[in-house]
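Lab meeting, item 3. Inverse folding demo.
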């Protein structure tokens, strides 16, 4: 780095910098400058301009989202950060080192878009294998593998071969593998792909837990709700170009609209409030009950079903008692259960 601000940072380390003692002098974990990637064909002819002059900075301890439609350059950016691809122009620095320096990879965990894992190994053997690649001792490996299997919720399936795993289970092994070396920076390419809503929620909680441990996470996704739930800042790409960059809370704030949440208001009180708003020159858009998300609804139903198997919830109400449905089925009654 050659700027004045960096010189200051070098003499006075930023307290908010990452947890490792040798964290980058600039206090920035990933910095891309004018980063471009052109894929060329066999004869060197330009095929696709996948990334155009990308400038982003990812700071220690944040969850940074790369957002964009299919083909917008998200995976290309991640591969450039990892040094798996070389830029056509510009640079990317990770922990202040050029992305082509392989030593930085010891501090990085990577969940690829599609994990290429050995199908005939169990989850335990898979993680043990990756632990060996990082030269971990036998005891350290066993401890770490155990921790990770618990973390991703695969205790019940750890002795099964990966070829028997569902898509979501494979994704979980992929994440565990990405965390084997207890990395400071975690790159997640579409982490929620193939996960059901429960798995998605768990993955999001896990990502938030990683941030709480002081890790830096960069993830890319086109699942907008997931990004909104976990990311501190996002960059939005379209056709390889950066279109927007900022804090999620700032980007999503609707200006000039005021939201008030209140409980226990009577109709009369609501009318009065509307009147006050009009008197002050405002216009009332709606005074209504807020809606929950589909995710909340789904997770509540699954939790209730686990707590009270057999009960059926009729929309808007508490779940019905299990007894009648269960009895109907058990007695061979052929009317549809719960109707
Ligand atoms: N190895 C490659 N050779 C040629 N073109 C490529 C290659 N990899 C990616 N591309 C092209 O680069 C562009 C960006 O691809 P990239 O995989 O980075 O997109 P993405 O944002 O990750 O998309 P998705 O959401 O579908 O995963 C696309 O037009 C793609 O076709
Ligand atoms: Mg991709």
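The presenter then showed the designed sequence:
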């Amino acid at each position: 780095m050659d700027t004045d601000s960096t010189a200051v940072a070098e003499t006075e380390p930023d307290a908010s910098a990452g947890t490792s003692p040798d964290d980058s002098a600039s206090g920035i974990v990933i910095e891309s400058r004018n980063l471009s990637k052109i894929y060329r064909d066999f004869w060197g002819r330009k095929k696709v301009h996948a990334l155009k002059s990308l400038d982003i900075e990812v700071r220690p301890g944040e969850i940074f989202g790369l957002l964009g439609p299919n083909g917008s350059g998200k995976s290309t950016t991640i591969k450039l950060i990892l040094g798996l691809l070389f830029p056509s122009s510009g640079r990317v620095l990770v922990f202040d080192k050029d992305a082509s320096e392989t030593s930085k990879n010891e501090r990085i965990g990577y969940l690829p878009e599609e994990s290429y894992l050995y199908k005939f190994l169990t989850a335990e053997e898979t993680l043990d294998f990756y632990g060996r690649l990082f030269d971990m001792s036998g005891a350290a490996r066993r401890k770490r593998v155990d921790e990770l299997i618990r973390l991703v919720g695969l205790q019940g399936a750890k002795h099964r071969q990966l070829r028997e795993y569902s898509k979501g289970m494979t994704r979980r092994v992929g994440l565990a593998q990405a965390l084997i070396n207890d990395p400071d920076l975690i790159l997640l390419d579409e982490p929620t792909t193939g996960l059901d809503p429960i798995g998605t929620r768990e993955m999001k909680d896990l990502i938030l837990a990683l941030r709480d441990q002081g890790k830096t996470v960069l993830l890319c996704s086109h699942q907008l709700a997931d990004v909104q739930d976990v990311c501190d800042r996002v960059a939005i790409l379209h056709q390889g170009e950066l279109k927007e960059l900022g804090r999620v809370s700032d980007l999503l704030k609707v200006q000039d609209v005021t939201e008030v949440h209140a409980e226990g208001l009577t109709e009369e009180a609501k009318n009065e409030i509307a009147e006050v708003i009009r008197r002050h020159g405002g216009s009332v858009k709606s005074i209504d009950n807020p809606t929950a998300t589909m995710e909340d609804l789904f997770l509540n139903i699954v939790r209730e079903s686990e707590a009270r198997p057999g009960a059926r919830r009729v929309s808007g109400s508490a779940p019905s008692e299990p007894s009648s449905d269960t009895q109907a089925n058990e007695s061979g009654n052929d009317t549809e259960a719960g109707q």
